[in-house]
Write the C-alpha cells for this entry.
Amino acid sequence: MGADARRPRAAALALAVALVLADSSVVVLALPDIYRDLDTSVAGVTWVLISFNLVMALAAVPAAHLARRVGPARAAAVGLAIFAGAGLACGIADQLSTLILARCVQALGGALAVTASLELLPATVGSERRATVIWASAGATGAALGPAIGGLLTELVSWQSIFLLQVPVALAAAVPILAVAHDEAATGIIATERRRTGRPHLAANVALAMVSAAIAAALFLLVLLLIEGWRLSPIEAAAVVTVMPLAALLGSRLDEHVPSARARAAAGAILVSGGLAGLGLLPKATVLLTIPPQILVGIGLALVLSALTETAISGRAPQAIHGGWTISARHAGVVIGLLALTPIFTHDIAQQRHDAIDAGTAVILDSKVQPLLKISLAQKIEDRLEDEKGKVPTIGAAFEPLPADPGERAEVQQLQGELQDQLNRGATHAFSPSFLLAALLGLLALIPIGLARRVEL
Amino acid sequence: MNGESRRRGRLLVGSSIVAALLLVGVYLAAGGASYTPEKTQDPCKPRPWSNPQGLGEIANQFTISALDGAACKLGVSREVLARALASPEARERFAKRYGIDDAKLARAIRAGLLRAIDDAEEAGALSSLIGGPLRSTVERIPLEQAIELIRDARSALSNVQGLFGPAGKLLEEFIP
C-alpha cells in the first residue's frame, strides 16, 4: 500500500474511532433538552447515555472477534453503516424508548467499527505501537470533544442534529475503508494473523474502568450543574466545558516527554481526582472557578486514558481483542459511574430544591418588606420552582413588578440578590457529594495502577 | 527503563500531587466546604421582637409572631405555613398534604394571633388597652378574616376602627 493511500485510510480510521467514542459523551449537553422535549425525568434521560455505554461495554469484545472472523475492513465498514443508520433513527426518534433502542443499535455498530479499526491500523500506519497511540489518542480526543460539539449543535440547531450529523461523518469515514474491504473480498484474504489470544491486562483494564467512571461523572455532573443549576444555555455550557478538551490536548503532549506509561497513568488519575475534588469544593457559584479543576481533569484524562490503553494493548495479540477489552472497560466504567452517581445526585437535587424553597421563604419572612408582599413573594417563588420541574429558577420574574416606594424597592432588590445567591449556592452544594465520590473513584484507580507495577499482568 | 525516564516519571507524579493538593487547599481555604443551607427556625421557640419603630415594623413582627404561633400549633415550619396562606389554592394543597381541615387551621391561626398580641405587648409595641379587645376579636373572627389579619397586619392595625367599630377611633391613639 502506498503512502498516499495510507494517509486517508489512517485518517478515516482515526475519525471512525473518535466519532464512535465521542458518541459516549456527545449527548451530555443535550440531555436537558431531550428530557424536556420527550417529557421524561432526569433519571430516565440518563439512559440515553447509559444504554449506549452499556451495549458498548458488552459488545466490544464479541465485536472484535467478529471483526477478525469476517475481515476487519468489512466489519469496520458495516459497523459504520449500522452506526450511521441508527444515528438517523436517533435523530428522528420522538419517544424516549425509541431513542434508547436506537442508541443500543448505534453502540453495536460502533463497537464493531472501533475494534475493527484497531485491527486495520497497524497495517495502515506500519507499526503496532504507532497504531495503538493513534487509536488511543483518537478515542481520548473524541471523548473529550464530544460534550462541547454536542452542546454547540444543540444550541445552534437542535439535539436531533447531533445524531443526524453523525450520518454523513460515519459514511465519509467508511468510504476509504470500503476500498480495503473490497480488496479483502476480491482476494479472499483476511489481513489478520491467527495468533492465540492472550488474556487481557486485568490491572490496566480495571484502572481504566474506574478512571472512566470518574471522568464520566466529571462531564455529566459539570454539564448538569452548569445548565440545570446555574441556568447557562447549552452553548454557554459548551464554551465552559471546552476547557477540558483543550487541557487534554496539552496533556497529550506530555506523552512524548514521559515514556513511563505507569507514571503517566498515576499522574493522570491524581489530576482527575484533584480536579473532581475541586469541583466538589467550589467556594462560589461562578463559572471562572470551574476552570482550574477542568484543566486538571483535562490534562489528567489525556494522560491516564492513553497510558492505560497503551499498557493494556502493547505487546498483546491480537490487538483488536485487547482493544475490545479496553473499550469494554471504559464503557463499563461510564455505566458504573452513571448508575452509582445518578441516584445520589438526583436525591441531592430534590433535597436541595426542598431546602431552597424553605431557605428562600425564610429569607423573605425575615426581611423588612411588608407582610402582604412577603407572603405573596414566598408563594410566587414556590410556583417558579414548581414550574421549572427541579431546575433552579431565575427568580427575577417572581419579584415583578417592583414596589413603587423607593425604600421598599431597594429592600426587595436586595432580597432578590440574597435569594438568588442562596439558590445558586444550594444548587452547587447539591452536586458536591457526587463530585467528591467521583474523585474517590479516580483515586482508587491508583490501586490497580500500583499493582500493575508489581505484577506485569 | 533508564534513570532519566524514571526521574521524569517521578517529576510528573510529584507535580500532579502538588497541583491537586494546591487546588483542593485553595478551594477549602476560600470556603469550599463551608456551605450550609439556611436553616428554618423552630416556630415554637420564643422570638423576641427587635425594638420595632413605626407601624410597618410592628406589622412585620406581628405577622412573624402569628405565623410562628400557628405553625407551632400545627407542627409545621412557619415557612410552609406562610406559603399555604398566600392563596386559596395553596391552602387547599397544604390541607391535603398535611391532613389539616379548616377548623384545625382556624384554631391554630387564632392561637398564632394571640401569641402575636402577647409578643407585641411584651415588646411595648401594643398597649394592653388595645391588646384586650384585640384578643376578644381574634377569638371570634372567622378563618378568612384571621388569615387576612396575618397577611395584611399593617392594614388591620392601621384601621383599628374597622375592627372595633366606633371605640376603635379612641383605641387608635394607643398604637405607635
The first helix of chain B runs from residue 3 to 29. Chain B touches chain A through 52 residues (CB under 8 Å). The mean pLDDT of chain B is 81.
